[in-house]
Amino acid sequence: MNKYLSSHSISSTLPNSLQLLCCSIQFEAVISPLPMDSRRNSRLIDPKMRRVGFFTPPPPPDRTQSGPPDSISPTDNWLSPVMIPPPRHASDNLSSTLALHSSRAVGMPVPPSALRRSSTENVPVGSYNPSESLLGTSPVLSPSSNMMDGAFSEDSANWIRRSNSGKFASSFPTGGLDLTADSEAKKAQGVSEKGEGTVVGVANDLSSSSKPQKEKTSKATRRALQESQRAAKAAAKGGVAPAHEQQRGKAVKQPSQKKDGFLATSSIAASEKKGGDRSQEKDRKKDMPPPRMQFDDKSRVEKAKRRAVVKQTEVRNRVELFRHLPQYEHGTQLPELELKFFQLDPMHPAVYKVGIQYLAGDMLGGNSRCIAMLQAFQEAIKDYSTPPEKTLTRDLTAKINSFVSFLIECRPLSISMGNAIRFLKARIAKLPITLAESEAKTSLCSDIDRFINEKIVVADNVIVRHAVTKIRDGDVLLTYGSSSVVEMILLHAHELGKKFRVVVVDSHPKLEGQALLRKLVGKGLSCTYTHVNAVSYVMPEVTKVFLGAASVLSNGTVYSRVGTACVAMVAHAFHVPVLICCEAYKFHERVQLDSICSNELGDPDAISKVSGRVDVNYLDNWANKENLQLLNLLYDATPSDYISMIITDYGMVPPTSVAVILREYGGEHLWI
Amino acid sequence: MPDVHSLVNEFTIKLKKRKIEGSKTTAKQTAELLRSVISQQRIPHTNQAAALIDAVKAVGEQLIAANPVELAVGNIVRRVLHIIREEDLSLATAAIGGLSLSAASDDEDDAEQDDHPVLSAAAVAAAARSTLRPPSLQTLLEDVPYSAAVPHNSSSGGDSEGKSKSADKSSRSRKLKHNVIEAVNELISDIATCHEQIAEQAVEHIHQNEVILTLGSSRTVMEFLCAAKEKKRSFRVFVAEGAPRYQGHVLAKELVARGLQTTVITDSAVFAMISRVNMVIVGAHAVMANGGVIAPVGLNMVALAAQRHSVPFVVLAGIHKLCPLYPHNPEVLLNELKSPSELLDFGEFSDCMDFGSGSGSPLLHVVNPAFDYVPPKLVSLFITDTGGHNPSYMYRLITDYYSADDMVVQRRPAF
């Protein structure tokens, strides 16, 4: 999308960029030695990009603060992340920034296209603040990134982190003395600050002290931008605060694997273009979902186990019917994983944290799991730097793949997460080869933000608006388990002053309904609580059933929390309409007829215990009994004929229309 | 009598406090109680059967009122009443048979009318059976007008008492009580052994490698499955845990102890698993005359799922669970709401429950019914101690065990 925008909005942004040119002379830093025409070709021959372009999304929220949104994109085309070997910059860097700019300007040919770069010069500061995330050292870097290539700035991020871990002397190349000195001076400070755990504090401190040296021009504006961003970030991170300490501890170690990232970023421009084209072909193939791992295939399981980070042990008494699904002993691997925390080089701490949350079962609900995963990926992308001899497109995809396989080891992905990953991979594959690394990362991060916003947040609002029209005074609404969308619908309808009663149906062992019940009663809704067995008893008085879904498959089957099918079936038997509320990003072109071929197995121990009921202890030593298995299914498939309507962000449709939505709005549109 | 009174009161209180639960135990204890009532009942020389019936009815009414949901109590009261009528009838026919060996069918019917204020076609058939005479088509056809006229004659039945011979009466009075107690003992042993009789049929219904699903725990189901296992059938059982009592855990434990392959699933996974199940075998709380089943909560859901996947839904029920009433709105009227504490932790939700105090009506209701009603169309087969039956046959089975005039036990003294 960015690419398309770039090719079409050049004319519109040109005046803007010219204006900016006079005040910023650093643009030369991003000039790539690639011949102009080849780059242009690569842009024009891509039909997919063209098609995408006609679909103009609203600017993502956090870009707005970093300047005009279209000023970002033009440059994406012209940037090559690995064009300029960093050592040279660093050596240029010796005297002063101004000297650097002038010398660079002489040293490099300046094609006219490079003018466009100037318009974005202040963008990276705003939207690109990757290294800020963990150590708070980024403010040092962001000024430097203004004068240098994106790749280099990211490298310097690594470098500073490494310098923190005491390795900088060996890994830092030739010059860069003033920078080094700068960071050296700050190192002690930064470390001490870290000890107190005030990330933002460090960031502030460093940025303020480093700025005067770096640049004098638009200091105030830059400062404002940074401040606002940091505030936004802090707000976003508020929810995951407890994990900070772990992250910081790990961040010191983590980049060591990226060491070679900048040492010899020689030009691999020729291969890069080819790689990009191939990746698009691959992407087309990727439209078909890959076959799922079948865990009854011994050889493949063995192979997977060798690769696995999380060493799971198989539960002993397996249910014969579900041999194809993984089932591991619960709780055994958690402490081990925590121990491994400091040795997991390839895993980004944010991803690691999310993985552990999945494993521990702290993170439930399709939407929150998906958002957490995307945000972790966003962090990882921000901290990512392309290793030499590799292209961002391919290497980052591989990296994401490794993250994903780690997350799968922690807990099998939900379909919505699979869709989000597909979206992200498609975005990575579509990145223009010529795009600078920093730009690419910026664009990916904003893509992720946009996905979260459009496909989950806004979609939920649309669903709520639709669903509320179906609630009338005097209704008795039944819901099962705890669906975030249904909760929003009920609360919104209550806010609108509609008079209705809610029946919350719950089931052992998750008892998620109690959380929903507490929220609803807390807001003053009149509720009835019962368990799934008694659903036949309450159904005669119910007028509508609202259910959430983990996914809607293209044959109209609703794949959802186990028990949903039971509730829908009983509702159908009592002629009560069943409304499924599901965001369109959870739709999937897979088809499924039963709940057995594809499902997820939960912890069997959860069945043997009943919370708050000490008298139920008949199955305490169940694992020792050879003939006894406990089956804790997590999902089931509701046949489409039980469903009256699916409320999605594209409107209210019958279940038969899911395939149509997937076809018409699928692919690019569904995943933005 | 005071002895019996205190026994009755004790039992009534137990029923009221739900100290006795489960149709089998209640049925057994009711039968034992009624036996002692009968044995202690002083019997007048005339119309002994009526006296016994009145005594049993009075006690039965009390018991039924104590726990109207426990239908087994009512069933046993009716069974005992039926036994009294049958025994009386058989004695009468025997006496007449002894007096006039060449008695015509008309005479026999006259005698019966004397002793039985109300006479049903079933009673005639039973009487015919007891005299070792199969009812011929002719007798049946000729009896029809008499049976139809029976309620009419009942009021004038008393004056015909004198026609009977007194010598015969005295021997009959002792004999009646004795016979009734014998029959009630038989009933008690029937209730005790109904499991075995049902379990005997297990091999006829379970084949090798069968997958069976059940919900909750039922002694009958357990014996049934174990009997099949003992006869070297190997099969697998899915046990749904049956929240909120989680009796399925108990059943699973028992089955595993007997060496059966058992898998415990959550109740919510019933729909997911039913497609891989060959047969659903469940116990019942009561079987109604229309073939509907009052069953532990959750079974209606299981039955619907089984119907969806065309899985046979088999109900095991001892004959003491057979209730001669036709249900109306049984989900509500023949149900019982249990304590919410089985579902929700009071301590945790006390704050929520307080919210309603201001507005007058509480915001939070917790519904915890004990039973489900499974309509007859969802039931494939009943297996009772007398064999397998279709739901549509239940009404006929009922006439074998109950008299038509006992249907409304509790209303009788109101007249």
From TrEMBL, chain A:
Residues 63-78, 116-147 have a biased composition (Polar residues). It is found in: Cytoplasm, Cytosol. Keywords: Cytoplasm, Initiation factor, Protein biosynthesis. Residues 231-243 have a biased composition (Low complexity). One of its GO terms (molecular function) is translation initiation factor activity. Residues 271-302 have a biased composition (Basic and acidic residues). InterPro entries: IF-2B-related, IF_2B-like_C, NagB/RpiA_transferase-like. GO terms for cellular component: cytosol. The keyword Cytoplasm applies. Its main location: cytoplasm. SUPFAM superfamilies: NagB/RpiA/CoA transferase-like. Pfam families: IF-2B. Residues 50-80, 109-149, 187-309 are annotated as: Disordered. Component of the translation initiation factor 2B (eIF2B) complex which is a heterodecamer of two sets of five different subunits: alpha, beta, gamma, delta and epsilon. Subunits alpha, beta and delta comprise a regulatory subcomplex and subunits epsilon and gamma comprise a catalytic subcomplex. Within the complex, the hexameric regulatory complex resides at the center, with the two heterodimeric catalytic subcomplexes bound on opposite sides. Belongs to the eIF-2B alpha/beta/delta subunits family. This is Translation initiation factor eIF2B subunit delta.
UniProtKB/TrEMBL annotation, chain B:
Its main location: cytoplasm. It comes from the Eukaryota. It is found in: Cytoplasm, Cytosol. Gene3D superfamilies: Translation initiation factor eif-2b, domain 2. It holds the Pfam family IF-2B. GO terms for cellular component: cytosol; eukaryotic translation initiation factor 2B complex. Keywords: Cytoplasm, Initiation factor, Protein biosynthesis. Residues 148-175 are annotated as: Disordered. One of its GO terms (molecular function) is guanyl-nucleotide exchange factor activity. Residues 160-171 have a biased composition (Basic and acidic residues). Belongs to the eIF-2B alpha/beta/delta subunits family. Component of the translation initiation factor 2B (eIF2B) complex which is a heterodecamer of two sets of five different subunits: alpha, beta, gamma, delta and epsilon. Subunits alpha, beta and delta comprise a regulatory subcomplex and subunits epsilon and gamma comprise a catalytic subcomplex. Within the complex, the hexameric regulatory complex resides at the center, with the two heterodimeric catalytic subcomplexes bound on opposite sides. This is Translation initiation factor eIF2B subunit beta. The lineage of its organism: Eukaryota, Viridiplantae, Streptophyta, Embryophyta, Tracheophyta.
